[in-house]
User: Fold these one by one.
Assistant:
Number 1:
Amino acid sequence: MSPDAPIGVFDSGVGGLTVLKALVTQLPRERFVYLGDTARLPYGTKSPQTVVRYALQAAEALADYGLKCLVLACNTASAVGLAAVSERIRDVPVIGVIEPGAEAACLASRSGHIAVIATEGTVRGGAYQDAIVRRRSDARVSAVPAQLFVALAEEGLCRGPIAESVARHYLEPLFNARAGGSRPDTLVLGCTHFPMLAEVIRAAAGPDVSIVDSAETTARYVRQTLESRNFAARHGEGSLRLLATDAADRFARIGGRFLERPIRPHEVELVDL
Amino acid sequence: MSPDAPIGVFDSGVGGLTVLKALVTQLPRERFVYLGDTARLPYGTKSPQTVVRYALQAAEALADYGLKCLVLACNTASAVGLAAVSERIRDVPVIGVIEPGAEAACLASRSGHIAVIATEGTVRGGAYQDAIVRRRSDARVSAVPAQLFVALAEEGLCRGPIAESVARHYLEPLFNARAGGSRPDTLVLGCTHFPMLAEVIRAAAGPDVSIVDSAETTARYVRQTLESRNFAARHGEGSLRLLATDAADRFARIGGRFLERPIRPHEVELVDL
């Protein structure tokens, strides 16, 4: 294992590019290989067995690049596949997005009442709820699916009246506590698409709510992990390799917004898993 | 072939239930078997070869019920798979949603300027554009992807300020012709989810625009096809059998809104393709 080895980042599609962007900001000298399984998305509606099988295939494809660290930048894959992937790719640290997000939420919350917004599948699976309560048994978790945010992020409608009214639609019932009810003081963005909408989400939740962006917290956790092992790149200029299993054009077009830099379609290599 | 045989209806998920609802209204005496390939949706982002393979598998599974007619209630499957499925299921009429919608639009339009809203995949594939121009060479087609409508329909947000502002977002640029520009006089709802939002779409397009609902037009075309062959059921009370390849709970919950009657999860039979 060398500090010059690349970091692998895996997601079912473009959402994980928000995690990649945070990683590039935190670790600008690193080489990254990102794989989006665009041919088989979405993972959230598939059975856990299928998601584990897909995650293992993706992890093995990325492991061929000689990784020093693998990030599962996909909530569904993190929730159901982290253990299986860690078992398979034994010699490198495998990091999911859920544990860092849960950790940050438990640190940020004073009252212990934590709200989580995520996709329907992530909420139903209960991984954030479990990870939070495991760390803080006094926690109360209000988890709400906010599926439309995914479509808004992919359409590039992250600001303006539509995004604002969708944010109010999901967040007002969560944060407008009725008389006597408790109001969460922390909100976890439990889907990799949601950091795209952080601004309207923040406005709808209110200024006194701590927002935990799991892309940010995961990137910080990856940096700490590498630094603690003396595995962080010291001299590199950083680079980025983008792989997808289908639809390179769409990946480039939508992914560019997520990564906040243009992606040219020919930059995206098609791979089979 | 007997008039008492059932009609098969196939879609990648719940969207085709709007077509099924229109069919049940037009043909209340018929027995229907609906198959939603919920395990492998969405089809719109998959390669044509894959969609054809899936559509053939679904068609064969439905053919085992001894059909008298098969409806491809899925725009993507209709666009790329109709010929292959007709070839495979030779002894029964196979009807897609695109040709009836294109036919109705050509009849409804005076000016020949026809707008189509659909998913990204359907617009890119150009099947409506081709089917319209094949019937009416003077036609001018403005096709626009309106992806958010899918998420709104599945979330049950078909009315109210969010749905209204999304409808304006997509339709105002289409129907607010600049000085000298021509304005479509007909709008095709080219996605099976969109009839759910017909009210807000109509309001945003304006009262002088003819709306072609491809669920309605397909159901009418199926009735005509059966009647012209003397294949319509005469004495039955009608029945409905619902099959899905995954997630019966979600199918029941969301599908109930599309079908406009509650679906109990145990009514949905899981099948493997």
Number 2:
Amino acid sequence: MIRLTGIPDIGKPRVVIVGGGFAGLKLARSLANADFQVVLIDKNNYHTFQPLLYQVATSGLNGASIAYPFRKFFEKQENFFFRLSEVEWVDAEQGVLTTTIGAIPYDYLVIATGAETNFFGDELMRKNAIALKSINDAVMLRNTILCNLENALQAQDEEQLNLLMDFVIVGGGPTGVELAGALSELRKHVFPKDYKELNIKQMDINLIQSGDQLLKSMSPEASEKSLRFLTDYGVKVWLNRRVKSYDGQTVTLDSGEELKAQTLIWTAGVVGSPIKGLKEESIIKSNRILVNEYNLVKGYDNIFAIGDVACMLTPEYPEGHPMVAQPALQQGKLLARNLLRILKGEKPDAFKYYDQGSMATIGRNHAVADLKMFNREFKTQGFLAWLIWMFIHLISIISFKNRLIVLLNWISGYFSYDKGIRLILGRKKD
Amino acid sequence: MIRLTGIPDIGKPRVVIVGGGFAGLKLARSLANADFQVVLIDKNNYHTFQPLLYQVATSGLNGASIAYPFRKFFEKQENFFFRLSEVEWVDAEQGVLTTTIGAIPYDYLVIATGAETNFFGDELMRKNAIALKSINDAVMLRNTILCNLENALQAQDEEQLNLLMDFVIVGGGPTGVELAGALSELRKHVFPKDYKELNIKQMDINLIQSGDQLLKSMSPEASEKSLRFLTDYGVKVWLNRRVKSYDGQTVTLDSGEELKAQTLIWTAGVVGSPIKGLKEESIIKSNRILVNEYNLVKGYDNIFAIGDVACMLTPEYPEGHPMVAQPALQQGKLLARNLLRILKGEKPDAFKYYDQGSMATIGRNHAVADLKMFNREFKTQGFLAWLIWMFIHLISIISFKNRLIVLLNWISGYFSYDKGIRLILGRKKD
């Protein structure tokens, strides 16, 4: 017998949303006044503002200021129910989702489980590398960076010193670039004061990119400038290199070169994170879920997928939309409207992605931005891009208080050249 | 052979301070321009403002806003050296401190290791109870409280529901009283909105106190009013009871009564936390280190103890000074001056404790305060005491930014009746 969870039946069609990232959160919120019961399942009790995780990892921000409790966010939404749990599998025939806390029947299921780090099957890499997908990951990375420097004070020889003080970041996308930039700021402005006994110039920051440019999803101008900014910061950028293996100490590149570092941060790709029980035909390579233009999962008539985990093949995006916040938010919003249309027997609207551009920050006063507004493109690099980056990220954070705290940290950090959350709190990488 | 740590010899007499709490931090800072090398050893890389730990545990504040990195605090102090490590033992004859990272020779050793929770040898209690001495403890307690409520939604019967929703706090000192007050605020203002599916009235908060009054170190007025405030908040205060046993579910009192709760918070006493290797005669019952009026440890001429771990027997304080922040700060400050006098061959000054009073907050608008200023006593309870409590705590926090963030959280919490850091982050009690 299946044990049901205690979610009450409120006599309305039930939409079960798995995952409270950008897509799931937007959908749940957009259904606020709809004639649905909205059930959100997540393994955390809070939403994470992922674009700023790298600042948590580099002591610029506190984890709590980029997290927001779901129950607080939906406090006044009467049709909303939350359960802290993880999905085990879906029984689509019965219309039941099995979770770690029991079974949840649904009328409509929405999979918004996002993406997970792609180690391309390299189990040794999975074990030895640090990924950056959650606040716990970010805090662990912060702890590891700080402990490395503390331990470097006790290093017995040059080899051990280098293992501790050198860092390797794999992947030249936004996360890799932003992390390399923030780490080099720590090296330039913070560590020389904190660790006067060490020669901080010995600290190497290596960024490894498989292609011949950084930020390859952005404009050539953005790619070029980000490379220049990082090189000016003293980051060693290795283009056209792939990591062949990493044993926890030695990084072997496909070019034959070797780097030594005890800490390797892996940002070189993500795959979808679908749930079990779906038909094989609905999962494509890269583990994303194949959906049609209404975000309906192939082979089902009441299971949807939105956000990073969903792959909608269109002429413009033959490999699916980019796995970033904007498509997720737009799909969440549209699906809410479409569910209402379906309820009324109307035909849903097809999804069309409005790309508003993308950006990445490299460090103080330096960012790159490719913006699209009113059908016009606008590219900028440097100080203006950096101001725009800060403004957009600040207004995107949930809650006035968190925005204030982030702003306060940024302002104080800007004028003091400091990153103040240098706390070794909780677990570090084993 | 003993492996030395890499702390350089700067040709000045070396003062090694173990522990960066109030006492150790004050001492290290007060030696800023002195002709000593100051070495601080701590198992954390940050100072913890312990008086506000209970607010971290009850989702009112973030851990980071009451923590401050040592290296940042001493950034400009040229004679300061920090090592993240734990003490193993002291070899007083050789003048060497052995730590987890190697041996550290000293000219003067100062033990400022503070206090630890006293479970009175009850190993079952140590295993099952939650203590509140560190930020990690506080975050774990917050996670546990929130998980209990999440799990209560899935409770199979009334017994399980009560185990999850009821809380037992042992100890009616400031920590127990403040925690009981903050928890009852969560119950009144936050949980009814977060957990509409639960009947929050079922949540019991029990406070167990061995004597016939709460806050027994304070005035009768403070004791009486704190009892009234807590009772008004719906806290069940059990006076004249001791806990006989706790198996993780059932709390058995010496009166024969039984309480059921999966979560028991133990605040019923502390003992000193001395280091190994000291002569037996220098450690007294309650594990504190016996010191003379100069904080010199009995039996040694270059080992001092300050703060909670030090026990100075005086006619006014026949059992030693209270284990709170004020004596620690004053002893740290005086010892800095005395070390300078010793260096000059002058006679040190004897310690005299200036008790400035004490206070405890019970909840919004409610605190009790016994203040001593200019040889006058001033007692107040209620709103004014609460304002004074906030002001004193706010100005005591290190750094302008942390003060601003705490103030921001307090103001936003006051007007919204909310405690916003309801994040289950990291580990909970197993």
Number 3:
Amino acid sequence: MNAEIITIGDELVTGFRVDTNCAFICRQLTSAGYIINFTTSVGDSIESMEEAFRLAMRRASLVVTTGGLGPTDDDITKKAIVKTFKRNLIFHEDILSEIKERYARRGIEMPAINQNQALLPQGARFFPNKTGSAVGICIAEQGKIFVALPGVPREMEQIVQDELIPYLLSLKTTQNISSTTLKTTGIVESRLAELIAPGLKLEQGVKLAYLPGYSGVNLRIIARADTPEEAQAKCNALATEIAKKCDKYIFGRDDDTLEGIVGQLLLDNDKTLSVAESCTAGQLGMTITSVSGASRYFVGGGIVYANEAKIERLGVDPEIIEKDGAVSEECALAMAEGARQAYGSSYALSVTGIAGPDGGTEDKPVGTTWIGLASAHSSIAKKYNFGTERNSNRIRASYAALELLRREILDIK
Amino acid sequence: MNAEIITIGDELVTGFRVDTNCAFICRQLTSAGYIINFTTSVGDSIESMEEAFRLAMRRASLVVTTGGLGPTDDDITKKAIVKTFKRNLIFHEDILSEIKERYARRGIEMPAINQNQALLPQGARFFPNKTGSAVGICIAEQGKIFVALPGVPREMEQIVQDELIPYLLSLKTTQNISSTTLKTTGIVESRLAELIAPGLKLEQGVKLAYLPGYSGVNLRIIARADTPEEAQAKCNALATEIAKKCDKYIFGRDDDTLEGIVGQLLLDNDKTLSVAESCTAGQLGMTITSVSGASRYFVGGGIVYANEAKIERLGVDPEIIEKDGAVSEECALAMAEGARQAYGSSYALSVTGIAGPDGGTEDKPVGTTWIGLASAHSSIAKKYNFGTERNSNRIRASYAALELLRREILDIK
């Protein structure tokens, strides 16, 4: 069963607001077994809306719209529905009393303008709105379903979960979907594909997507089948097959983050962490503490941007900076060891590099970064070459540092 | 001139990813004078893509797509372009050497799979990608323009800003557009509107938009007129009128950033800066050093997440923490003074707060934040109440700290 989503509003097509409603409805409908090929955003124009409604109703068996159901003049979705489906608006006394009651509970008299909201296209059913005055509208026509929902996210979400999805499930649908995401780090997309692709055959109804981001490449698997169990089994089979091919690069699944996984490893092993940051200048600390509860294992650290700060705050030997430079194995090791001592933590991570855009040399081009890791028994440092873009270098360096620690704790070579 | 955006990827139509690319491009094209009636997201299917491309090319004079240009098998946008425009793919040696060089700089051999990325539809121009291997593709046909960009946000954004917009502006459009953005901080949107709106009359063809973000509210002025000079004059007139009404909140214009402005003020006054971060845990240092050349005024700082770190690394009196708590005026002052001394800087900024989601009390709810500023002659601390969302609290706190320093240097009350 195909579905389409249409989100309505000038604020969307001018880019003033990022559309989060669309993704919410897509997730809900996908889980309910619908396949979505297209979603559309359309501005506040009756003609454009009518065009979008007609096209979607031609292509899909379910169309869900959000937005434009409020009481004010710029809320014109109902007018576009009336034109598209050629139906009159009918007054619903029960809807009006419900709205009046809602206002009464807040001690406010209902503004007259809200009377509009009790008008529904002839033959439509409505989905009650527990938190607002615009009800959801549902029209069934020639075996297809058209649903208009309010645009306020919490109202829309409540109606989808409490009304729309149960209604759709009460109708017969045909397919079930299961999905999972394997999260990798420390390997580029194309190299990962070289590990995974050879000999890989995707079963009917199974899709694999490579989604690169700063922390690494996510591998998303979606499987469709006739039963939920079958979809789940297909999904798991592919995840297992992929994991065999690139296990050491996979740090987690689904909602896992690298900083969350590393934090959990520290907690599980009763260890603490500090940092010594030069080029990242706080990025690493910020990433580690984006996990709520990070104070249970993160102590703090030094942002040692200037060489004097490295020397005076973390005890880096000035001769190292003189002889090897601040971007060197020796300096990364000294920074990590200095932070571990100063902050009294089990582990310390250090980052020193040339973030760019300036400061590169032939020997040490922009992107050259040394990451150090000090622990009770040893210290290591590893050299990385990131790109030329300052901010992405710093984010990549932070994740590379976390991955170095993950491998140390798990003893992955 | 009408434009349409098409964002591509199963992760969008299944709702696994919220589409932020679409809003970014909508904003950029709207600023460049385009009118957008429809945007579409489409799954990874050549047939669906072709259908979306054809429809958009029929309705609009500019179509911009994102996604599906990577080297792996699920990246099929180029195949859909070939089918839609009936053009062969041509190998571009210069693109391949650029990609090879990028890998070489990172000390990695280019995976063979990346050769695909040097293939472009016949007759297409390309937009270089400074941070990734997928170039932008631009096809001009029958007076219309089709552009395919990579889906990785930072790559897409760089190409749009550095390549696409200048290219579009170099073509003749029927109207001349001038725009400018006044950047404010330290005041909420509705309060700003109360200052600006009374007595303000917008001339014909002039639009003013309030764009709230983490660092403050941007005021975007767009003026359309028959000549560039007239558009520019209308734009300037409104900017001057607005500046009169809220001057002390305006820190810059257009590409100015608060961290850049503060950095320049430090340089101009021959001053240096250090930080002491508790809840922000590096966010402030990272923001300051996102400016290239920040090493000329930024020394470093302490991430003092644990109370022991505040005491031992910055000399905060344990009695302060015992008596007033770590989130207090006294602690913020002691942290700033401690950092200024430890790092030997002219100024030091400190941040200590309850980022959330846990840790709030009745007296100090989540979002309560103290920001301190130490300088040669005095120290001050100010209390803020941000929201309940951890990461946005930390970003807001960093900008509030920078604004405190800007006002100190400029002596704005």
Number 4:
Amino acid sequence: MARDNPIFNQFREHSVAEFFRKNRQMLGFSGKVRSLTTIVHEYVTNSLDACEEAGILPDIGIEIRVVNGDHCVVRASDNGPGIPQKLVGKALGMMLAGTKFHRYMQQRGQQGIGAAGCTMFALITTGTPVKVRTGTGTSKVYSCDLSIDVKTNKPKMLNEKMEEGEMRGLEIEGEFGEVKYDKGEYGPLAYLKRTAIANPHAQIKFKGPNDEEVLFPRASDAIPERPKEVLPHPLGLTTSDLVEMAHHSKDRKISSFLMNNFTRVSSGKIGELRGLLPDVNLNAKPRNLAWADAEKMIDAFSRLRWIAPATDSIRPIGEEQVKKALVNILNPEFMSVRERKPKVFRGGVPFVVETAITYGGNSGRHTQSGVSGDVIRFANRAPLLFDAGGCAITQAVKEMDWNRYGMKEFDSMPITVFVNFVSVHVPYTGAGKQAIANEEEIVGEIKLSVMECARELQSHLRGKVRAGEKEAKKKAIMRYVDQLAKDLVELSGTGDVERLKKKLVKLVEGKYKKKIEDATLEEIAGEAAAAQLEAENSKNEGES
Amino acid sequence: MARDNPIFNQFREHSVAEFFRKNRQMLGFSGKVRSLTTIVHEYVTNSLDACEEAGILPDIGIEIRVVNGDHCVVRASDNGPGIPQKLVGKALGMMLAGTKFHRYMQQRGQQGIGAAGCTMFALITTGTPVKVRTGTGTSKVYSCDLSIDVKTNKPKMLNEKMEEGEMRGLEIEGEFGEVKYDKGEYGPLAYLKRTAIANPHAQIKFKGPNDEEVLFPRASDAIPERPKEVLPHPLGLTTSDLVEMAHHSKDRKISSFLMNNFTRVSSGKIGELRGLLPDVNLNAKPRNLAWADAEKMIDAFSRLRWIAPATDSIRPIGEEQVKKALVNILNPEFMSVRERKPKVFRGGVPFVVETAITYGGNSGRHTQSGVSGDVIRFANRAPLLFDAGGCAITQAVKEMDWNRYGMKEFDSMPITVFVNFVSVHVPYTGAGKQAIANEEEIVGEIKLSVMECARELQSHLRGKVRAGEKEAKKKAIMRYVDQLAKDLVELSGTGDVERLKKKLVKLVEGKYKKKIEDATLEEIAGEAAAAQLEAENSKNEGES
């Protein structure tokens, strides 16, 4: 036997771009329809994030042209802050580079892969670079043709130009192959429609391959408050996080390191920590923090009482905005919207669940075979169209006992369940960012929130049933009115049948409108007799 | 407004290890039970791959000890070829490095992430390195403590030792946190049981936390033929593949580049290509191949007739082995196994689908609420336990019209559907390698294969129904035998009732066993009468 197996001559290192080139399905590039929607998704979420950071009301344009066969040109533009020249290459042509990955802040994107993934997809399906044009509000406009060196994961720039001009924003145009424009529920237009629901402050213009133009107008001129970048909460930390942050810290003592780098750590808390950890020296240098000590600290954190993490970092859409958007798009007969208090998962990562249920109108999923209950999912306001099966939101809705809310037939009802998961860190199941991992706390919280909405819808549906029953009862009573009027006139030998009938109808419709279900025919007859007496009296009075 | 938005001061680059550290759920490290199974999965598939490459019958050991709380020590050992000292670090402590990623060959692992992912998981959950010991069959044994520098994705080795000793194989022992040992269907033991089903040539020893020992013995001593590394087929290429390979080629002409690097490209085919592509110079240097020419070549490839890709690169388990394994584990009443011919997906990536259906015995999924139809999934013989919802195999089985096969009640029948997907490239949906992407050709082929099995099971079940009906008919006829025997004796005034009865029973059970459903009572009566006559005759003969 050879000293070393010859297989080891084949040992190689690979770049992350090579990995995703070979496993492009992990980025959402699988299937022609999904691939095109993924491109739109990456560009639009980048634009929305950039505008939000810069406090700009977003104006976003998406244009799609079919070139030939399965090639499309996609052009995305925004009025955001633009990208400085020196960062264009890395931001759009290098994977795992960007401003988002390491920040503790609510953002749609968070991985630094998306836009560079599109650049790579253009390269591997058409061999062409994407054209980039950007300005940061100065008098210079930078443009280039940008590609990616897959072997090394480095950007490649061609035809770089810096010209005079006024521009603020970013324009990207690329030709992509193995894509297909689709008008259905998984296509770009459906994606943008959902984006508009969750981002009423954005204006989105879409131009499709057949010259169709769709404008999603801004429903609200209020610039959403910028989500703040926050310090992590001690409860959200793992030992590994703590050790790594400590080892990179320039603070002189562990105590000051804790106070400077985490939220809710006061000098009082440091005192409590010292009490719990007599054998850990909190005056030692953080860069020397040992794993065992860090483990003790994490354990002590969990035994202290903490103020909950600050939630300024989290900006849900807001009840009013959600209502506006849902009315706009679904025009429902009934709607219940809930925004629950912030919770945490994995111990200390704050998140908020916003949910709504709509009923009637365009609610539900309408297909040729009829209507069915629908779930529309969002994470940090970005629509999730794919991978529904593996998503915490779908799981929560599925696991609910709809029967308990009188909606045994959920699957065939005109109901839409809306869920927006908002957090500084969304635990996506894959780099394609289309499903949220089934973390227990997340699934539980979504369930509770959807249940609250379901309860309200239940009351509404009960009301409808009661209204229906009321109507039936009224009709039944009305059938007696004719006879009753005649009988009463005959019995008393006085009065006018038509006049009495009108009076009885008014009685039934008026007095018993609100609580007709409690009234009985006898009562009605009694009232009718009283009315008759009254009529007689008044008549007698008139006659006298 | 500032020249550049201050957000860009936050621009950073990150390593792939950092990416997966933050998104560990993408590697299968989500949930305590799943995380432990993922560790076992990564080590076992690496061992099986290494043994297969080296032509060694695998002896694999997995030992799990619960340390405290949610920490476990996992020890994995094999008798494979071992790893040469200079590659240990990169093979086990660096992501996207290894022998597998770029090779066109059937393997369980294919990404160069798995084992390094485990090293990282040990680090981030317990702060400890993994202990590695390996020998390549020489008189030296190398050992070290290995960790990973997450910031740079580089291996860190401590306590390196080279000692005298005889050893061939690899031992890894690590302490992992945030894990839980579970005996259920998602735990390590269930994983190993399924591994044994699909790898009858492997011996696997398991030692669990409560000193339980389980041995999965080798069911076959035949070393499976080594899958061959093959050249890619022209039909499986994208333009991007072709351009990239050409640009890295040292061949002098495009024509020789094609013949040397792809399967089924003969000089005859080059001639045909020249005919189809008069304006592409096949004598040009491949390193200068332009995208447009490559596109034309890919188009021309699709118009030529090709011999199908070689399938020596693909090694299914084989019908006999599958049967042995299924009998062993499920002990079914009925079993149908199918291995269809190799097919291709994405134009030219060869794959084979092996399927089986078992019925009865331990088939199906047995829970407290009863039994239900079960699907057990494999890719290149590695069990897929998680993410069933998003897997092509599940989809294929779900989409089947079980009703057509008389199995409307599939969901509550003791049926197990076994599917092994075998290919040089498995299109996993995620880096956790637990589900196969829903490629149309793959789903279609799985369906066809499962349908063939289902048809056989249908015949079996029909047979059971018929056998049941036959039995009922026989019982009905038997009820007449008593009476018939008495009547006949009385009518003829001769013969012995008991003796005649026995004869009739024998008649019914014997002569009509095979086709009793075609027999009628009259026929039976006729035969009985004939038997009676015969009896009389023999009696008379005896008396005469």
